Amino acid sequence: MIQKIKFFILLIILAILIVIINNFSKIVENNAVYAIANSTSTSDLQLIARAINGEARGEPYEGQVAVGAVILNRVNNSSFPNTVAGVIYQKGAFTAVSDGQINVPIAQGSTVLKAAQDALNGWDPSGGAIYYYNPATATSKWIWSRPVIKTIGKHKFCK
Amino acid sequence: MSKIKNKLYDWKDRLKDRHMLSLVVTLVVTITVIGLYTYKRERDFRQISENRYNMAFFELVNYVENVGTYLEKSLVSSTPQHGVETLTHVWREANLAQAYLAQLPIGSQELANTSKFLNQVSDYSFSLSRKNIYNEPLTQEDLDNLKNLHDYSVELQNTLNQLSADMNDGRIKWGELTQKGSSVFATEVSNISKDSFSNVENNFHEYAGLIYDGAFSEHMTSVEKKGLTGDEINEEKAKELALGYIQTSNIKEVNSLGLSENTDMPCFDFNVVINENDNKESNMTISITKKGGHLAFMNYNREIGAETIQEKRAVEIGKEFLTGHGYTDMKETYYMKQEGIITVNYAYNQKSQYGEIVAYPDLIKVKIALDNGEILGVETTGYLNSHNLRNIQEVKLNPEQAQSGLNQRLEIQSYRLAIIPTEFKTELLCWEFKAKVEESEYLIYINANTGKEEDILVLKVMPNGTLTM
Fold it and tell me: Are B360 and B347 in contact (CB under 8 A)?
């Protein structure tokens, strides 16, 4: 009987240790990622590319350019911040910013830099959109009420 | 009692076995230490965040108050000179207020109207101050607008002061606002603050926005598209037109993605799947406008092979493509080369009795692949928005007169007539002077009728092309 209790206590302690160590390594890992992000320059092109990388990595090329275009459309819109950094880092604007995906380094052979460059050069496949959402994951009721311009890949682009 | 005591002693003895006791104690102590450490770090980070939000909020309160004060002053300003000073202050304070508003931990939809108000106050004051600089007095309409703006800013001020009082009294904490899944009390508190900001928003739902000559003016969104000529077409015709732009013959299929609505330029969108050489597929997207069947944009993403085409040749290819599709008289202005693709800007050159005038607003951008000269992308928004045959009446100033007002240090290399866009989508006819000072090159635009210096562009020659800033 005592043996069993000892065994269970040991098990519980081990479990707690594992949980804590896991979280600890996540903290360390996140720090490493932020360190990488801090060492690269963040001009508008880089920022937009990283935002696209965080938001639309797996999307078709047109979808990536469209995300970049949404960022620029917001800069030009009076209801949003007036700079690329302001728009991207506005609270709640991009989930990739809230969960740190924006700091993931851009993979080799990724098209996001080309997409960001196209968006900066004026290509706007979103048709002037200032909002977009993924209908499969969007939880906000408000975003569903926005008028849809078109759908590209997994995202619906709206005014 | 003694039974428990015996049990405890029994435990102690068992724990002494093989240093179990020390092991267990070490584990417990380690876990506690780690736990305390992470908790403290979390608290520190939260404190830093809260401090920044507080700073942003109090800066916002301060700047909005200043906006109100300066607006009030501008209403009674007597001389244009003093008017400029006061309005410049409004511009600066409103601009900063907007910047700090954007830093608050509140969602964009809640702040949209307030943001718009601050942007328009800032922008409007800027455009009015420019009026004053040229000694134009403010009209009654301007003064009425300023009065309105002042009233709104006072409302905003009052709401922010109430919020500020709430925060100072500890009724609201940012930490609870930003926390998700907080306790009932916290959510109640966060509701108050969110509601207060929603109140700010509600006060502004009546703020319909100003119409004036500025980048954020209301009329910007409903500007007529001069280049979008022609009748409406249907999807079939659009598909036909789209195919006409594709150069490659390895088309696997053309998918129609439908008509895009709720936009000021409805287009039929097509996705073209193209077979590449080694059994790879790539996609091209083409958008044809519903009105007139114009090409809105085209974009083709594929891997680029080794470069074989010279930049000059690529620019020619782009020009031939445009001429072949009805865009005549387009001449290159600037280009940028990156990773085997060259993006060239072409502007429309209008013939007139004064020679060729380059119309910069009528801009088409073409992407050409440097491995085989294929057209990878076309972007025509500028052209469709502005292109029309301008009625060039007399040009009051000749180049010598226009040149006389230029900075003495400039060494003029060439000049020509140009039409340039303004920030608020109007156009100006100017003499464009290309000039050099020491090692830097500039483009200076002098209004061809008034002699006023409209704009200066710094030419940055970069290894991958020439850009203007």
Answer: yes
What integer pLDDT is reported at residue A36 of this predicted model? 30
Cα–Cα distance for residue pair B81/B132, rounded to 1 Å: 7
Exposed/middle/buried for A92, CB within 10 Å: 0-12, 13-18, 19+?
A: middle
Q: Which residues contact B99 (CB under 8 A, 6 or more apart)?
A: A81, A82, A86
What pLDDT, in 10s, does the model give residues A6-64? 888 888 888 887 777 666 655 444 433 332 322 223 478 888 999 999 999 889 999 99
Closest CA relative to residue B214, chosen from B126, B291, B322, B152: B126
B79 backbone dihedrals φ, ψ, rounded to 5°: -100, 150
**Percent of chain A residues topping a pLDDT of 70:** 86
Q: Pull the structure tokens for residue B273.
A: 């799947």
Cβ-Cβ contacts under 8 Å, B377 against chain A:
118, 123
Residue pair B43/B175 in contact (Cβ under 8 Å)? The answer is no
Given CB atoms, is B99 within the 8 Å cutoff of chain A? yes
| Interchain contact, A76 vs B215, CB within 8 Å | yes
**This prediction's pTM:** 0.77
Beta bridge partners of B268: B259, B288
How far apart are alpha carbons B146 and A142 in whole angstroms? 33
pLDDT over 90 (residue B157): no
Would you call A123 and B34 a contact, using CB atoms and an 8 Å cutoff? Answer: no
For helices B80-101 and B108-133, angle between their N-to-C axes, nearest 10 degrees: 160
Residue B294 in this model has a pLDDT that exceeds 60: yes
Q: Could A20 and B31 be called an inter-chain contact, meaning their C-beta atoms sit closer than 8 Å?
A: yes
B 5-64 residues with CB below 8 A of A? 10-11, 14, 24, 27-28, 31, 34-35, 38
B-chain CB neighbours of A62 within 8 Å are 271, 283, 285, 299
Q: DSSP per residue over A18-80, as a string?
A: HHHHHHHHHHHHHHHHHHHHHHS---HHHHHHHHHHHHHTTS-HHHHHHHHHHHHHHHTSTTS
Which of A17, A93, A150 lies at the smallest CB-CB distance from B31?
A: A17
Taking the Cβ of residue B425 and every Cβ of chain A, the question of whether any pair is shorter than 8 Å is answered with: no
The string of pLDDT tens digits covering residues B341-385 is 999 999 999 988 888 899 988 999 999 999 999 999 999 988 998
CB–CB of B436/B407 below 8 Å? Answer: no
